[in-house]
Recover the amino acids of this structure.
């Protein structure tokens, strides 16, 4: 975990959600922001060092909050930082109170609470350009006198007023500004509703300082007539989402191919560049050891792991083991474990970036609030809030950004329910499995093959909604928290902000791929590679085929097939055969299930290996499908019957076979307990559903 | 006096009383739906849309059962704000 304390002085940005705080932060910091967590809390807080008046200061972008009552984990963090509760020695030096000039009255409620903290404060009156455009004229000097602190009109979008804001901050930090009298509480002596007193104060200030042209907001009202309509709103929502997903898949196609190609080339380069044997063992050992240690240094730095006794011992021991590996094993580790493992996950980075780009644009425009509004009625029927639709949409590309997007849900129980059920939705990684099964069952009928896809997607959605309902009836009881949502005025979204959001989210994903996913990939590689086939068996295969491994592909494929059978993963596949037999799986399919726990799409290449056609041939679907169709059980029945194929499909639709998602669940929920529960629940659900599928189709004579 | 959940037509209303003290009531209060404030009901669907404190809010109908309101004329709303002194 990073802490926030680095520079001596710090400036915190606080304000309502949608006040343009993050855009202002991005303007002030450029690309220097880092995302950090407070210990024990899974709330990202962005911070960066900036130079003001020749001094380095920390600028901290707090999560948005509506009041100091702290009703969500994000608001708790913001309140704790503002009140100096997280670190008593690191009180905010200056608070930049970001107010939305287009909605000053509502923003002043929070302002009344923050000003009462009596910290050095500068008000950044953001969106001043939008306010002017909508006919608002704000008396800045009067507002400054009323709030008893400097007020700087700014536009984070255009950069207007930022120099003035920097100057005011410099003056505050150097203590040159006039010390104003203590801000009096607008609720002091009030015996009635404190909220009402603050709103009255806010309205009074707003009326005195803001002069509005008539017929303001007519455009928003007209658009809302359509977008929040009970029927038209839902149609508009699904049309927009369809367009977004079409663009995600359309634009991501090329970069995904490029990532795939780049990692395939890297893997090939590693295989060809690595020496076949250790010519000078001592030099080899030293170089490999240092390289492995360098990887640990890098990984620990990225993951924020400290060099303590245990972590140091692990790094040294693992580096030593790696340096002692035979040359061939090291080559396989780098090419098949590290490069292929990371590449298999990073291939989804383009989709994730494009998804967050559109989400950011839609959020900025004000549409997301309307989407939550129209989805509220539908989602509440299964116990989820309307806001859960954003993560659910994201999860159709990849569960990881979906889980990260669940932060839009303020209520912890609703957020947790959403996180736990999200991986049931069909992500891109399942598509190779769906394609394989569709081709296995209906290769001659595109319509029926398409129905397999539709059925699998539908099953995922139904399972998600059912699971949410079940969780709400059992371990997370209670209805979804009723919707209370601000419907902000429509605005032109900021392209710059969208790109910075993409960069921020993309880096979080890459960091995850570079640490947790790397470890998982290496562990699974080891399970599928060791123990190695005894020399006697290698010699026996070579003798049988009459060629050497290096000169014949068929021999190499046979060795790979027998090698994976002999490995721990292969043995586990045989061991669990009685467990998966009622689902129609044989021990070879079980190996596919075992090796695909890191990433489910791995099952296709694993099946290609265990059925003896080689990993490279997995991309040639015709060869793979024909080979799978030819497979027989010991009693002569085909393995991939309709019953087994559908059971296999149902299992992969519902099973939690994505350890990176588990790592993100742990990160977002703050506990492995929920990640384990998610894994157990989805595995049991997948097993039961596949069992029913196989048995029903088997009894119907299709198995 | 009527409940906000029973309002069938758009119009101006003053909040007279709010039942309960839970998180959702607090959420409403800090957004401006609290005693003595005037709100404009814009859309009476579910969720309904109200305009309060210069902002439009979407609120689930289930939450509006706890809000007692009184219809206001447009003229009354112009002087609807009770001076701070009166709340003391």
């Amino acid at each position: 975990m990073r802490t926030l304390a680095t520079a001596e002085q710090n400036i915190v940005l606080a304000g309502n959600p949608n006040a343009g705080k993050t855009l202002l932060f991005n303007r002030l910091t450029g690309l220097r922001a880092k995302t950090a967590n407070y210990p024990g809390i899974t709330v990202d807080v962005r911070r960066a060092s900036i130079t003001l008046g020749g001094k380095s200061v920390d600028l901290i972008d707090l999560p948005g909050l509506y009041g100091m009552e702290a009703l969500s984990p994000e608001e708790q963090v913001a309140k704790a930082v503002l009140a100096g509760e997280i670190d008593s020695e690191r009180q905010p030096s200056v608070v930049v109170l970001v107010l939305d000039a287009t909605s000053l009255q509502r923003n002043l409620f929070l302002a009344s609470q923050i000003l009462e903290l009596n910290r050095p404060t500068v008000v950044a009156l953001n969106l001043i350009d939008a306010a002017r455009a909508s006919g608002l004229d704000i008396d800045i000097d009067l507002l400054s006198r009323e709030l008893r602190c400097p007020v700087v009109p700014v536009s984070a979008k255009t950069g207007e007023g930022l120099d003035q804001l920097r100057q005011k901050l410099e003056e505050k930090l150097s203590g040159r500004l006039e010390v104003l009298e203590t801000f009096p509480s607008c609720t002091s002596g009030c015996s009635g509703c404190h909220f009402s007193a603050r709103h009255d104060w806010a309205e009074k200030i707003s009326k005195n300082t803001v002069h509005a042209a008539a017929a303001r907001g007519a455009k928003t009202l007209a658009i809302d007539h359509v977008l929040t309509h009970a029927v038209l709103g839902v149609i508009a929502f699904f049309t927009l989402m369809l367009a977004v997903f079409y663009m995600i898949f359309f634009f991501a196609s090329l970069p995904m191919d490029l990532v795939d190609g780049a990692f395939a080339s890297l893997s090939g380069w590693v295989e060809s560049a690595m020496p076949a044997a250790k010519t000078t063992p001592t030099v080899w050992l030293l170089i490999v050891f240092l390289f492995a240690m360098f990887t640990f240094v890098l990984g620990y730095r990225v993951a924020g792991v400290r060099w303590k006794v245990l972590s140091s011992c692990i790094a040294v021991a693992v580096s030593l083991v790696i340096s002692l590996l035979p040359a061939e094993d090291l080559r396989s580790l780098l090419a098949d474990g590290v490069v292929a493992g990371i590449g298999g996950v990073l291939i989804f980075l383009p989709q994730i970036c494009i998804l967050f780009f559109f989400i950011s644009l839609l959020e900025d425009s004000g549409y997301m609030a309307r989407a939550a509004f129209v989805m509220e009625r539908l989602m509440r029927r299964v116990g989820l809030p309307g806001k859960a639709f954003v993560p659910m949409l994201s999860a159709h590309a990849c569960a990881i950004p979906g889980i990260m997007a669940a932060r839009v849900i303020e209520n912890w129980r609703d957020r947790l329910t959403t996180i736990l059920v999200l991986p049931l939705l069909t992500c891109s990684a399942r598509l190779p499995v769906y394609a394989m099964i569709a081709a296995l069952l209906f290769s001659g009928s595109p319509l029926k093959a398409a129905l397999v896809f539709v059925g699998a997607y539908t099953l995922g959605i139904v399972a998600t909604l059912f699971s949410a309902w079940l969780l709400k009836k059992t371990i997370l009881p209670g209805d979804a928290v009723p919707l209370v949502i601000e419907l902000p005025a429509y605005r032109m979204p900021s392209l710059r902000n969208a790109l910075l959001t993409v960069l921020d989210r993309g880096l979080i994903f890459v960091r995850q791929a570079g640490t947790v996913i790397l470890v998982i990939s290496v562990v699974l590689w080891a399970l599928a590679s060791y123990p190695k086939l005894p020399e006697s068996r290698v010699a026996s295969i070579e003798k049988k085929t009459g060629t050497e491994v290096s000169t014949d592909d068929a021999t190499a494929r046979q060795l790979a097939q027998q090698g994976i059978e002999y490995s721990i993963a292969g043995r586990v596949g045989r061991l669990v055969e009685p467990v998966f037999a009622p689902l129609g799986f044989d021990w070879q399919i079980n190996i596919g299930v075992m090796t695909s726990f890191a990433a489910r799409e791995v099952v296709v290449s694993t099946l290609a290996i265990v059925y003896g056609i080689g990993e490279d041939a997995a991309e040639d679907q015709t060869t793979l499908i024909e080979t799978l169709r030819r497979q027989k059980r010991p009693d002569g029945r085909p393995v991939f019957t309709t019953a087994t194929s559908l059971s296999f499909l149902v299992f992969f639709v519902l099973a939690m076979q994505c350890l990176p998602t588990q790592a993100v669940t742990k990160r977002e929920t703050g506990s492995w307990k929920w990640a384990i529960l998610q894994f157990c629940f989805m595995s049991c659900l997948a097993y039961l559903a596949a069992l029913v599928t196989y048995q029903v189709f088997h009894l119907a004579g299709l198995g | 006096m009527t409940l906000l959940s029973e309002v069938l037509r758009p119009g101006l209303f003053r909040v007279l009383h709010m039942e309960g003290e839970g998180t959702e009531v607090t959420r409403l209060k800090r957004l401006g739906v609290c005693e003595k404030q005037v709100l404009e009901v814009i859309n009476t669907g579910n969720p309904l849309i109200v305009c309060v404190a210069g902002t439009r809010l979407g609120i689930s109908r289930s939450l509006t059962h706890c809000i007692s309101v009184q219809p206001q004329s447009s003229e009354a709303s112009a002087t609807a704000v009770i001076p701070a002194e009166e709340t003391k």
About this structure: Chain A has a mean pLDDT of 84.
